[in-house]
Fold each of these.
Amino acid sequence: MVYIFVYAALLPFFYYLIRVKSEMLDEDVKQIKTHFWIILGIYTVVLMVWHMYYRFKYEVPLVHFGGPLMIFVGSFAGVIFLCFLIAFFLMTKGRPNKIQLFKASFGPKQFQFMLPAMGITFLVGFILGLPLTEKAKYGDDLQYVYDQFADTAADEAISIVFVSSEKDCYEDCEDTKYDTLLYVRNNKDEDIDVRLRMQFALESGDTLEEFKQFRLEDSAIEPVEFHIDRGPWNPVTIRTDERVVNYRWQHQWRSAEES
């Protein structure tokens, strides 16, 4: 499920690959390329509509240029462009009359679009598809938080909901830390300044204590974050070597107008 949107981005490329044959007329090649752009365009529009959905429902930014994803995308695009540039100059040696030789090196004319098609579909998948999977998880977590807060009595100025304590990895997770996530809600009808002290109980029985001062807007719901920033749709409260199994908290508050 995590990479479904990335894999779906390859559909236009596979369409191009399947339809192209060794012997084709120029008109056929042009038609296949047109179909490729149409399929890729529809896929891109669908992804953008999903991004807009999360933007308006959960106020998630449309794009966030940061983190390993953008580093990977930038590196991938840079390496492809550099290889292309080096190959071009090595084969043409700066002489325009050698450009046909460069084009011919990619095989028959109908196959010359294959590398650009593959690169474009991979980039679209990673730039639009992968962040969407992260936003989908963020949306599910936030919906769970909304439901929990709806069933929580507002006896205090703030309420806190525990979401998860898990490793964000799929294999070789031994050295990966646990990401624990909690959300806090302002139960007052005004902006408040909060002094929050939290104690986390780990699986081994050890405890970890954190302190945070922050302002909560009227009726706001937001993640509790201690010194960690993984981007707008990857909130983390704390990162530990062991799973968090329980927590306690104390708080003081005052109206923001008194500050």
Amino acid sequence: MAAPMKTRERIIQASLELFNLQGERNVTTNHIAAHLAISPGNLYYYFRNKQAIIAELFNQYEQQVDTFLRPPEGRAMTVEDKTYYLEALLAAMWHYRFLHRDLEHLLETDASLAAQYQQFSQRSMGRATAIYQGFVDAGILIMGERQIEALTLNSWIIMTSWVRFLCTSRGDPGDLSEEMLRRGIYQVLALEGGYIAPQAREAVDALQQRLFVPLTTVT
């Protein structure tokens, strides 16, 4: 039998669930405490305010992305790597979707988090650039340095704004589904359409078919 979660872990998990379902701005520390049937004072023993909880959740998200967003060592890239990156990005986006939905507000209200996010953003785009270069070196994509730079930036814009797009087009953060986020991953893959090497076309087309979600699902 698994050991029961400690109070601090329960607070983190409950906060993530409520933020994802209702939107961070609609959830207070009192809501979180009531959801867990603990006193606000008990919550404040572990986290001095809601910003501290958000900072912990962002740390977890950052660590998850840092773990997978890196080129493999000692071998050439494959189309299967593309599948791995896209599925891992989808999982991270879905698990921490409130961060993407409320990102601008979160960064405006916490200067420390804003500075941390800026470093995370720069590091992630640097790693994404290296990954795209790896696909070029492996003969999967055909593009030059400026095209890699543009593709990296466009992919980052889609990834960081897709949840907000869904919420503005649908209105209810609790109405989001993993399938709707999958369409965002497909959009990233679609950006590469004009750069796929002939020998990789069949495998990439199969991946696009696997990830495709009709636009009517998200609008």
Amino acid sequence: MKLILIGQGGHSRVVEETADQLNIEVIGYLDDKYSFFDLENDKYIGPIHSVPKLIDLYSDIKFLISIGNNVVRKRIVERLNLSDTYYLTLIHPTAVISRSAEIGAGTVVMAQSIVQTNAKIGQHVIINTGSVIEHDNHLGDFVHLSPNATLTGGVSIEEGAHVGAGATVIPNVGIGSWSVVGAGATVINNVPNKCTAVGVPAKIKVKEDDTFVQHQ
């Protein structure tokens, strides 16, 4: 298998080291900071629209969008319009994954993370270092859990939501699509779509006219 990383920043370096520990060869990087497709130091580089060239070159090619921003990951997936079979699911060898868990294409599970019984994780999700996903969690596509986030049992995280470092979500709580849970927050109530929840216990703020107001 040959792996191409889409995006070349800090997150991609962590992804590449994870791939290396699994003996998966990263043969190049696609990023729109490059203006042309080339081979440099035995690695392919080029803009994102170079994907078809690499598919033509290799029958066993896989891609992984190694960009932390949820919105950008979704835009790239829509732009490329590839079959799910072209995306690699990458799981660090120190992660603990239940046999009954389901993990979608293009998702990355980082070191020391735990995914428990009957958890269902969507596509192009980032499960960062030391995160805990307890039993019966449901995570939509393009979700991002920052390091040491803890989702207790029965939590639902909708598409594109971001749970900050060290945050905790209590059992059976839902986080709406494209919402943000701040670092260190403790979420004890449902968070609506496109909101921010911060503090202990978390207070919910709704975005109105580019400002945030506390949600009653």
Amino acid sequence: MEKEQYLGVSVSPYTYEEIIADLKKRIAAGEQSTVIAVNPEKVITAGRDPLVKELVNNSTYQIPDGVGMIIASKLKKGGIRERVTGVDMMGRLLQFAADEGHGVFFYGAKEDVVRTAKEKLEAKIPNLRVAGYANGYVQDQEALVEQIRESGAALLFVALGSPRQELWIKDNMANLPNVKVFQGVGGSFDVYSGKVKRAPAFYRKFGLEWLYRLLTDPKRIKRQMALPKFLLKILLQK
């Protein structure tokens, strides 16, 4: 399946199931893969920052995390059929790891957040093996990379905020040959730890998480303006 382009940014038209199936083949072949969430805000940022655009476009899977990406694909008669959110992609990958016997490693967030996320996920997903974790305030990066390497984890979830987490992955992939799947997960540890509540199912079902976040935190209005700006640019694009 060919990737779609929106304002020079690549987006993968894969569903959750298609990504997992493709990853299974790539892991069997010994290949490393990266997963990055793409939403209108990130596309707008990529238009201003060549480094962000490079990090997105060089990823293996650019998942369409945001209803704006679905709308843009429909406007351009693309093939994106469903949202693939970062937090839910992480959940699918954890289930995949449990099913296939792969170890996982969590890096990022505050100590209590990442530890609680680890404990709750281990309790929720049978056979999940969290090979290790580290908070986002580790100073000795060489020791951290060695810890991840020695853990034997095949999947690594990095929560440092974007684009810092993607830069960290880019800089350390070569030193972590045992890790086959890297995902920058932003605030997902906060969600899985229970510190941050997800939007109710109704909002998630209809792609209205942005509305829920705006209603509960009106200060986000400036960030939310990226959606109409993005769609206008898509409409005006030749």
